[in-house]
Design brief:
- It is a single chain.
- With about 200 residues, the chain is mostly helical.
- The chain has one domain.
- The chain has six helices and no strands.
- It starts with a helix and ends with a helix.
- The mean pLDDT is about 85.
């Protein structure tokens, strides 16, 4: 299926999302170990802090994954009653506003990261982690989201004037049929992968 510039970014975003999945699995196992270890009067004393860092990183990267998979929520209650040209203009506006928000978040994320990188201030926790380290990962996720959304916004704005049908197909909200088709395709892939392993 054609995805425009987001199709080019999908492999990078997918790799980052998979890395986040492994990080979440690792922190889950570490949390279980921590719970059991506390019964034996032992504690790693850093699981909650690491969990917070991983949550921040996976959230930032999750924004990009939701974008490339068209999983961001779109309220279409009124939009579906509008004329097609107005709907297409709103699709382009949605991408432009998303890019604006993403760029603002990345800009503020960089400001926070650079301030703490210069000061070298540590976290107020037992690990005493230099704050710029987790903030660098968080900023990288926000920067990836800003890049993906900006490419999509530029493409959507261009399509508004040259091929509005393609704009609606690539950047409009998913129809019920598209959502069902995506779920069925995902299920087929998972069943095929399961069959290959057995």
């Amino acid at each position: 299926m054609e995805r425009g510039p987001l199709g080019l970014m999908t492999p990078v975003v997918r790799a980052a999302a998979i890395a986040c999945g492994w990080a979440l699995m690792a922190i889950s196992f570490a949390t279980v170990f921590e719970v059991v270890a506390r019964k034996l009067n032992y504690s790693l004393k850093s699981i909650d802090e690491l969990g917070g860092y991983i949550l921040a990183a996976t959230s930032a990267i999750g924004f990009s994954w939701a974008l490339v998979t068209r999983a961001h929520m779109r309220i279409t209650l009124v939009v579906n009653w509008l004329p097609r040209p107005a709907r297409r203009a709103l699709d382009a506006l949605a991408m432009l506003s998303l890019a604006g928000m993403a760029v603002f978040c990345a800009w503020r994320g960089y400001a926070e990261f650079s301030t703490n990188f210069i000061s070298g201030r540590p976290s107020n926790t037992p690990m005493q982690t230099p704050l710029w380290i987790p903030q660098a990962v968080f900023f990288a996720g926000l920067a990836l989201f800003a890049l993906c959304s900006t490419l999509a916004a530029i493409h959507a704005a261009w399509l508004l004037f040259v091929d509005s049908t393609r704009l609606e197909r690539l950047y409009g909200p998913q129809s019920l049929e598209e959502e069902v088709s995506a779920e069925v395709s995902d299920l087929d892939h998972r069943l095929a992968a399961k069959g290959d392993r057995s």
